[in-house]
Amino acid sequence: MAAAAPTPGSAAALLPHLFPERKPITPAQIAAGVEAALVVQRRAVTFGKRPFAAVLLGPDNETVLLTHQSIDQVNHAESSLARLAYTHYTKEFLWQCTLVSTWEPCGMCTATIYWAHIGRIIFAGTNDQLYELTGPGNKENFTMDWHTKDFLKGCPQKDVEVIGPLEAEGKIVMEESDKYWSTTRIASL
Ligand SMILES: [Zn+2]
């Protein structure tokens, strides 16, 4: 997808050197990115962590620069990864990078990705799907009701690209994640 001209007066228009062109990502690269995140997620679950994980792809959309699993309920995979990325790389570089998450980033994570100046977010499963798996009153995740795109919609400063949910990859993420959530959700209402 060709980048649209920046909004006049926006950060992207005023400071173009911080917004280098992002290389369009292909479906095969998206699928590979999600699979890389799933590898991290599977391993995290074996350590007793919740099934959330993210990876940072470099400007070539293929090189995995950093990975992160969920640590706990306030140290999520995506925001932890975004903070780590910002300590490693420059804004110019991160604008060309992609954060791929198995699940839709929450408000905290979306905002941290925004502040880290990572130019693209990709996620497989949606928050609505997550709620299906966790159910209500799950002490491991009181799933919120909102969407990543809503947080970034109409932002006048910069246009973080959001790709997701992904139908095929989302199904796989749901199936794999349910192995964990089925053991923690309240069985019946
Ligand atoms: Zn989060």
TrEMBL record:
Pfam families: dCMP_cyt_deam_1. It comes from the Eukaryota. Residues 28-145 form the CMP/dCMP-type deaminase domain. Transmembrane segments: none annotated. GO terms for molecular function: catalytic activity. One of its GO terms (biological process) is nucleobase-containing compound metabolic process. This is CMP/dCMP-type deaminase domain-containing protein. It comes from Pestalotiopsis fici (strain W106-1 / CGMCC3.15140).
